[in-house]
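Dear support,

I submitted the protein below through the web form. The confirmation email said the job was done, but the results page showed an empty box. After a refresh the structure appeared. I'm attaching both so you can tell me whether what I see now is the final result or a partial one.
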Amino acid sequence: MAATFIANAQEKPSKEETIAYLDKALKSPIGYNTYNTKENVRVVVNVIELCSFMEKEIDFKNKIKFSNINWADMKEISTCTTAVCDSSYTDELVQITINFSSKIKVECPNFKIRYMNEIWFAVLRSKLESFKKGLIRLSEIAKEENKDPFDK
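What the results page shows now:
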C-alpha cells in the first residue's frame, strides 16, 4: 500500500502582516546611536528614535521622512559596507539602501523637499535578512495589486 503525502504550500504573509513586521523590525534599533568620525574621534550625531513603517511612507519623526513609495517599483536592496558606513554605526546596526525606478519624496528639516530614487536607514544586523525578505514580499504584493486585469 503506497502512502500518499500531501504537501501544504506555506501561505505567504499578507500585506498587513508584512507591513506590521517591517514596522516592528524598523523600531528595533530605537535607542541606538549613529556616529560621525571627526579627527579620529567618534561623535554621536543621532539617536534612533520614533519611527514608523507604513505602506507608502517611512517616517523617522523629526529627522527624515520618505513618502510616495511605490513598492512595485523597487529595483534592489543593498547594504553599505564602506568604511564610512562601518564607522557610522555600532556593530549591531547596518545601513540598508533601497533603490526604485520611480521617485520617492524625501523630507528633512535640514534641506528642501527632494525627489530621489533611493531611501536609506539603519536596521539591526540580526534582522537584516528577514527585513529584506519582508521588503521583497511587499514588492511582490504591490506588483500583484498593480497588475493590469486586461493584460493576459
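Response: this is the final, complete result; the empty box was a page-load delay. Helices lie at 15-27, 83-88, 128-145.
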